[in-house]
Design goal:
The structure is a homodimer of 330-residue chains.
Chain A lengths: L5 E6 L8 H9 L4 E6 L13 H6 L4 E4 L13 H9 L3 E4 L9 H10 L3 E3 L18 E7 L6 H14 L4 E4 L3 H7 L13 H8 L8 E4 L11 H11 L3 E7 L16 H12 L7 E8 L5 H15 L3 E2 L1 H4 L2 H4 L4
Parallel strand pairs in A: 1-2, 1-3, 3-4, 4-5, 6-8, 6-9, 7-8, 9-10, 10-11
Helix pairs in contact in A: 3-4, 7-8
């Protein structure tokens, strides 16, 4: 569990495309984000600028590295500020390829002050083997035709809409940005294969009968590298409801030429077949599309056609919200 | 790569059921097994008894721990003999839960002499992400309705029969006993989930057009804990041919009450659907059953019926060999 409030660290990154984590946190977890810390003329999230001393005085608990520099490493120029934070008792969290816990000066600073280093790409060491036991409470899992088709966005939007309606739900993160947004979660693709579905089971434990876990999906059953991860996540999640995520105009797995995405009805049948191993009642409740390649009126018309074809509500969560999806389960 | 010849270490284990690894090695890799080493009245593999000094003199390279004591640990009483082996320059290999590399006295002995410790449950640290690229050569994968239904046995029997026919084949091990038999391989269920299919791809690299990789399957698509592993292994293996493995009289996943095994035609369709993502020509060439619960004549008759039902050769490899399967691909 990563303690809020957060101080979002932006380094000297001026290109917003490297600051997706920071923008994601600001947009999806504003209640966790108190301020920003920039080294020079970096991107501006519109949050108050605070140094370490002020942050501590205001009760901030964790410095979250909100930028991913090219290469995924941690620039040496950032170390003095992070050491200052740790020595002042602030935790530091990051989802970089480079692990904070493997940088000697950060580790020793944290040990001295008792502050914690969170590497959110690193799974907890002990997960159980999957049990297949049906759990109480209800679960929705976003699933995709491919990676990076909006599974996290759709899950966050559905969770937010349920909360807006006063319903009982929890967002369950399975990737690094999602984990920073939620404050906890499981980096499912970093789990040892034998424990995949066990880790997914543990992520959404028994809950109240009317509680919904809204689980961030990963990968795709049609991805030649990651379908094993997807399968384990589907089995452990035991979804009652699934939302298919796709992108308009996409017909092939990204960076896997020749791996064509099947017709959506076939994609959905495959997910239902897999999901029903652990939950006989698994079904699709709708689909979420990224339609950014279409003009907005064309997008609306195209979603209407898709909805007729699939017999389910279809939306672009970013443009048109997720009310039509939420009505299927609320 | 584990160097042969092996000295099979049996400790003081008198119950043959704890010595399955040793018997498997003796039966399937007799050319790698030179002798046995027992502490007192342990099980007898029928191999010559040798102490460390004699073993070194005869050119033995590796002590292989062939017994799995209850609990999977390594009894302290074995340590002096293993230290003696390491100090004499012999490598030590094991597939126990306890890692040799985490036992200080073994590690320091190995460092002093330059001998190696092989923990065959531990995967190599670096596997690539799966590429989905079609490789040259041909591949057969054994797949199952469940764990422990004869996938390793069937693969070894098919490999041996191909070699007996003078054909070009390699057994590819994916579990600890298979790895000790083959001398190398990949403990696929211990790989980090993101690299599952990449590790499976690396296990059977490009090869001659007429070469067959005979790959040991793992888990089952219908297992609520392990189907993710199975999926990644199928995708990375890109099998041209699959052999279904099952056990007569089994109707539920072992230790997962309520998880019924579907009709075999349904099981086969599911495997073909998954396999065709990475190899459009994937097909079943037969099925291998453990019929030990039937009298031999009943088994023969039952296999005949299964064969008619499935339209494929069906055999019990242990009782009736695998010639009917091999004829489908040779």
């Amino acid at each position: 569990m990563i303690n809020a409030p957060y101080l979002l660290f932006l380094g000297d990154t001026s290109d917003p495309s490297y600051a997706k984590t920071a923008f994601g946190l600001r947009d999806w977890a504003p209640e966790r984000c108190a301020a920003q810390l920039r080294l020079g003329p970096a991107v501006d999230l519109g949050l108050p600028d605070r140094n370490i001393e002020d942050a501590v005085a205001e009760g901030i608990r964790t410095v979250v590295i909100g930028v991913a520099p090219p290469g995924g490493g941690l620039p040496d120029a950032w170390l003095p500020m992070l050491v200052e934070a740790l020595e002042a008792g602030l935790d530091v969290a990051a989802g970089l390829h480079t692990r904070l816990n493997e940088i000697g000066i950060l580790k020793s600073s944290a040990e001295r002050s008792g502050a914690r280093l969170h590497d959110v790409r690193v799974p907890a060491s002990d997960y159980p083997v999957g049990s297949g036991r049906k759990r109480s409470g209800k679960r929705l899992l976003t699933v995709g035709t491919d990676c990076a088709v909006g599974k996290k966005y759709a899950a966050l939007a559905i969770h937010k809409a349920l909360q807006g309606d006063g319903l009982n739900s929890t967002f369950r993160a399975t990737g690094q940005t999602g984990i920073l947004i939620a404050g906890d979660g499981t980096p499912i693709d970093a789990v040892v294969a034998d424990f995949l579905s066990g880790a997914a089971e543990q992520l959404s434990p028994d809950n109240d009968p009317d509680h919904w876990d809204i689980i961030e999906g990963q990968g795709s059953l049609f991805h030649p590298a990651y379908a094993g991860v997807t399968t384990g996540l589907v089995h452990g999640s035991q979804p009652d409801a699934m939302v298919l995520c796709d992108e308009f105009g996409k017909d092939e797995i990204y960076e896997y030429p020749g791996y064509r995405i099947p017709p959506l009805s076939e994609v959905m049948n495959a997910y239902v077949d897999v999901a029903r191993l652990t939950n006989k009642h698994a079904r699709f409740v709708g689909a979420a599309f990224n339609t950014s390649k279409l003009q907005i009126d064309d997008a609306r018309a195209w979603l209407g056609e898709k909805s007729d074809q699939l017999g389910l509500p279809c939306t672009d969560p970013y443009r048109f919200g997720v009310e039509t999806l939420v009505r299927q389960i609320a």
